Amino acid sequence: MDLNYEILQFYAYKKIIKRKQIKEIYADCTRLNMAIENYMIAKGYCTQVTALAALGEFFCMPYCEMGMLEVDKTLLENTTYTFLRKHKIVPVSVDKNGLMLFAVARPLDMSAMSMVYQIYSGPVDFILVPSVQIDIFIDSIVAVESTANALQDLQEKQDKELVNSAQKNELNQIEKNDDVINNPSVRLVDSIIREAIPFRASDIHIEPFEKAVKVRYRIDGDLQMRAEFPIESYPAICARLKILSGISIAERRIPQDGRISMTINGTEYDFRVSTLPTVYGEKFVIRILDKTAFNFTRTELGFTEEENTIIDKILAHSYGIVLLTGPTGCGKSTTLYSFLKEINRPEVNVITVEDPVEYTMPGINQVQVNTKASLTFANALRSILRQDPDIIMLGEIRDEETAEIAIRAAITGHLVFSTLHTNDAPGAITRLEDMKVTDYLVADAVVGIIAQRLVKRLCPACKKRGRANESEMKILGIDEPVSIFRPQGCQYCNNTGYKGRIAVHEIMYMTDKIKSAMSAGSPGEKIRELAEADGMVNLWDSCKELVYKGVTDITELMTIYGE
Prior knowledge:
seven-stranded mixed sheet, 23 helices
């Protein structure tokens, strides 16, 4: 029996795969000459973290996430980033006895292990980390250094050649000129974009002020300062961004939209670029979309077992409308995509209308709204109904016309998914009525409504347990103190105390009682009472449960309360 087969048996023992899958996976890996863990991650049997945890246990090696390690950057001076990336190893620290700790991602790669001794001749020890996190760690160092170098160059040289060329609209010359490609402003734009990826930024803000231009990244919902450079260099930065995103360089008076497609370390990214004229120049906001990273499951999105039971009932319907509600940026579209991924089968015709298309999904027909060509949500929806659809996803219900067509499509045998901007689930009913959709049509068409919010996760490396004080007990509505966690801040979370976000939900399943109340024109408060009597858990209580579990804290709970 070879080692790969034994690893597969261990994965089965850990219930990552089923025993009957062992031979099939082993045969595929042998045929494709592919590592077991890489195959399982690609096929979706496990994530890189769960695969690594199992391997760590199998090889009796400790494992953790790369961000939890405090790397001594001086140790990196003895090697190259290319070497570290190729062999997936990072020197972490040296203790007082001269023992050097290495982070490694390939415990089976003996050649990589032997390379360690080319770096250090003393005693060594190893800790397993996910391969992708080593890449991200190296990328972040390279990007930060590149940005710093470009900023330093900008202080010494103004990009007159690029500014002049941009003002003359000499696009071909700019793109082909090697001097321009090596220009500090060009390198700075490239570094700003690339640096955002390892920092998990969702948006990049480039903002001109009187004497300086500031660059901020939105990470876990908050803007964080990343760089600042002289305002004199900004015309060159604007020109480069506009060239990349296909925006008119000559136009500075009106807002413009563009798109950049880049492949960074083998991964395709879409960057949606938006400009806005301000007093000191055009502000740029760049939304980052990973074309290939949509692998979310309901559990990863924050749905509990009880909520998943209700979602299963909702998705089992063959017709009707399912609505997701919440403010901009709360993950409504991501949740909709996860639903579509589940119900997308060869025997159904799924069509979406989006503005814009954020993720491309195989087997689904996705339509991009184009208002300049009169392809609005309403017009596209009319055309879709002649395309024999089974399932329709509308990016958003924005007006009365779209609402009416969507509701009628749901009534006439189509399963429709869409979003609304309301504070809670019952509020969606009121919003549809405001859009002149009659009560009985809403009651007949709506299958379920899911309100969603995003709250920050406490950093698992530094969160601290403590007893709730009087004010916290009052917020939680309890009389006896309980144990809760509070944020602290460490290297792993960039001293914020939080790492990542999780969704909390309020799911209203349309029972006969609720439909009768809606048909009778009952107010939203009455509908909420009926829904909670039927078992609906509101957003506040959903988030409070995460506080008790140590996933988030009182501060994040208050963001739900404030809304």
